[in-house]
Amino acid sequence: NAGVTQTPKFQVLKTGQSMTLQCAQDMNHEYMSWYRQDPGMGLRLIHYSVGAGITDQGEVPNGYNVSRSTTEDFPLRLLSAAPSQTSVYFCASSRGTGVRETQYFGPGTRLLVL
Amino acid sequence: AQKVTQAQTEISVVEKEDVTLDCVYETRDTTYYLFWYKQPPSGELVFLIRRNSFDEQNEISGRYSWNFQKSTSSFNFTITASQVVDSAVYFCALLQGAQKLVFGQGTRLTINP
């Protein structure tokens, strides 16, 4: 298993540009989520999904959209990038949602918005 | 509200010293789960341990040990005989609801040779 994969590893955007951060897992995990990591603030939950077709907002959802058309993929979309979205983004997945499973993280995407 | 506090922003020790990373949490849930993750300089997040609120036994894994005390709402992490490879940022996290992780701010640990 490749585990949780994320692409790209690094991206530079200009203010107002859009892009999609890709996340995929090959472990047939039901739960997937996106976090952002900022200095001194730990990781904060952006959006999460408990299964294909089901998504919900986390702590800091503004400026981001998600969809979950398949179990494997959970892309994060920035419709109009802002400098405040400069961060490191992590995708995570876990086996189930009814039981409190351990979440495993992808390698991260470092995003710089100029 | 659920909250995790890691009061130590940075710790620096000399190799072979023991070091303890503190984690204090707040929750109203009677059943909850706590985690530690390691983030080495390469940037990925590595799962270290998960502990549920019903199990207060201390855990030891090699040079790593964890002390869970419900009475003080703490879940501290100790590295014995530290090594340079232990240098990383360490995060304590609390599981909120079914799957929402609430992270502490992280502690940057530097082990000097």
Explain the overall architecture:
The complex is a heterodimer of chains A (114) and B (113). Chain A has 114 residues and is mainly beta. Chain A has strands spanning 4-7, 10-13, 19-25, 31-37, 43-51, 54-57, 64-66, 76-78, 87-94, 104-105, 109-113. In chain A, strand 4 and strand 5 (43-51) form a beta hairpin. The N and C termini of chain A lie far apart (36 Å). The model of chain A has no long low-confidence stretch (mean pLDDT 93). Chain B starts with a strand and ends with a strand. In chain B, strand 5 (33-39) and strand 6 (46-52) form a beta hairpin. In chain B, the strands form three sheets. In chain B, strands 2, 5, 6, 10, 11 and 12 form a six-stranded mixed sheet that branches. The model of chain B has no long low-confidence stretch (mean pLDDT 93). Chain B is mainly beta and 113 residues long. The interface between A and B is medium-sized, with 28 and 22 residues.
SSE map:
The complex is a heterodimer of chains A (114) and B (113).
Chain A: E1 4-7, E2 10-13, E3 19-25, E4 31-37, E5 43-51, E6 54-57, E7 64-66, E8 76-78, E9 87-94, E10 104-105, E11 109-113
Parallel strand pairs in A: 2-11
Antiparallel strand pairs in A: 1-3, 3-8, 4-5, 4-9, 5-6, 7-8, 9-10, 9-11
Chain B: E1 3-5, E2 10-14, E3 19-21, E4 24-26, E5 33-39, E6 46-52, E7 59-61, E8 64-69, E9 74-79, E10 88-96, E11 100-103, E12 107-112
Low-confidence stretches of chain A: none
Following the backbone from N to C, one meets helices and strands of chain B in this order, namely EEEEEEEEEEEE
Over the alpha carbons, how many angstroms does the gyration radius of chain A reach? 13 Å
* Beta fraction of chain A: over 45%
Low-pLDDT ranges of chain B: none
Give average pLDDT of chain A, whole number: 93
- Rg calculated over all Cα atoms of chain B: 14 Å
Helix content of chain B: under 10%
Shape designation of chain B: globular
Residue share in β-strands of chain B: over 45%
Please outline the major beta sheet of chain B.
6 strands, mixed
Main sheet specs of chain A: 7 strands, mixed
User: Percent of residues of chain A in helical segments?
Assistant: under 10%
DSSP E strands of chain B, number = 12
Q: Which structural class fits the helix and strand makeup of chain B?
A: mainly beta
Q: What is the typical, i.e. mean, pLDDT of chain B?
A: 93
Oligomeric state of the chains present here: heterodimer
Query: Counting H and I runs of at least 4 residues, what is the number of helices of chain B?
Result: 0
What is the terminal separation of chain A in angstroms?
36 Å
Q: What distance separates the N and C termini of chain B? A: 41 Å
